[in-house]
Amino acid sequence: MHPAKIKQQFGSKLKSLSASQSPHRVFSDWLEIAAITLHQLPYHSGELAKDTAFETLEAQYMERVKAYSREKLNSFSEMLSLLILAHNGSYSDFLGEIAGEYELLNKRVGQFFTPYHLCRLLAKVSVGNVRSLVEEKGIVTVCEPAVGAGGLVIATAEEAASQGVDPCAYMQFDCTDVSRDAFNMAYIQLSALGLQAIVRHGNTLSDEYWEHRPTPQLRMFEQWLAPRRKAQQLVQAMQSILAGTSAAEPEACDSLPAYEKSSGQTLFDLEQFAGESLTRKRSPQKLDVVLDRQMDLFG
Q1: Global pTM value
Q2: Most buried of 86, 163, 184, 255 (most Cβ within 10 A)?
Q3: Domains: count for the chain
Q4: Rounded mean pLDDT of 184-197?
C-alpha cells in the first residue's frame, strides 16, 4: 500500500474516533495503548519471562482501555497495524507527520514538526562514517536528548543502512523527551522498525526521569548476548589461569562477531530499568554520537 494511502486511512480512523471527544485525547490514549502493546509482545509470546515491568504496564493498559468500546479498540488495533505497515521496509517519521498534519502538537511549549528530509540531512552531518565506527567499537551508541517522535533517530538509522550497516544489529539509541506523547511516539516507531533503544520519559535539562522503557529488540538482544558474554569471560579466565597470569584486561575473541568483540558491554544495564517509574538521576555515560537537540519533532 502506498504511504499516502496508509496515512489517509490512519487519519480517517483517528477522525472517526474523535467524533465525540478531543482528537488529542484519543491520539494520546492510542499512543499509550499501542506503546504498551508493543512492549508486551515478547512476554505474551513466551520469549521473555513476565516480570515487574510487564505487570505494571499490563495494569496501566487495562485501566486505559476501560474508556473505549470493543468497536473503538478494534479501530485502535487497525491503526497500529497501519503504523506497522508504514514502517515495513521503509524509514519515515510517520507519527510525526500525523501529529503535524492533524494539529496534535502543543505549540505553546515549543512542539513543532521537522520534515523528514531535513532529518536525513542532519543525520548525515551528525553521524559521519558509521562503518568505521562499527569497525572500531562493535556497537555504535547514539544519544538523542530531545527525541520527539523519533524522526532524527530514524533518519540516523537510515543513514547507517545507506552505508551498508544494519542499524538493528550494530546501533543502540538512548532517547529522551519531556512530553509523554513524544515518549510514546518514539517508542512505537523505534520498536516498529526493530531498533535497539532505551526510550526515556524525562527532562534532559534537569536530569530527572520518570520512566525508562527498552524496546523489545534491545531486551531480546541482551537476553541472547548474556550467556555468550559469560562463556567468553569463562574462557578468558581459564586462559589466564593456564598462562599463570592474573585475570587482567580481557582480550576480544576473534571468533566472535563484532558486537561481541566490542567491550563485553552494551549501552544499557537493563536491570535498573525493570519496572522503574520513579524520578531518578541518570549516571553519565560516554556515547559515540550525540544528535543535535531542538532539531526533531519536539524542541
Answers
A1: 0.81
A2: 184
A3: 1
A4: 97
The per-residue pLDDT for range 227-276, each reduced to its tens digit, is: 655 566 666 666 677 776 544 444 443 433 444 444 444 555 555 555 44
Quote the cell numbers at residue 208: 530527572
Nine cell digits for residue 193: 522498525
> What's the rounded Cα separation, in Å, for the pair 144 and 199?
10
Q: Is residue 71 part of a domain?
A: yes
By the 10 Å C-beta count (0-12 exposed, 13-18 middle, 19+ buried), 95 is classed as buried
Write down how long the chain is.
299
Q: Is residue 232 part of a domain?
A: no
Sorting pLDDT into bands at 50, 70 and 90, what band is 104?
A: confident
Q: What grid cell was written down for 102? A: 492533524
Least confident of 31-35, 127-131, 254-258: 254-258
DSSP-derived 3-state class of residue 117: helix
Measured CA distances, 77 to 41, 185, 187 (Å): 14, 16, 17
Within a domain: 226: no
- Find out whether 140 and 170 touch, Cβ atoms under 8 Å: yes
C-alpha cell at 258: 563484532
Longest dimension (CA), the chain: 75
Work out the number of other CB atoms within 10 angstroms of the CB of residue 222: 17
CA 65-66-69 angle, 5° bins: 80
| Domain annotation covers residue 23 | yes
Indicate the DSSP class of residue 255. T
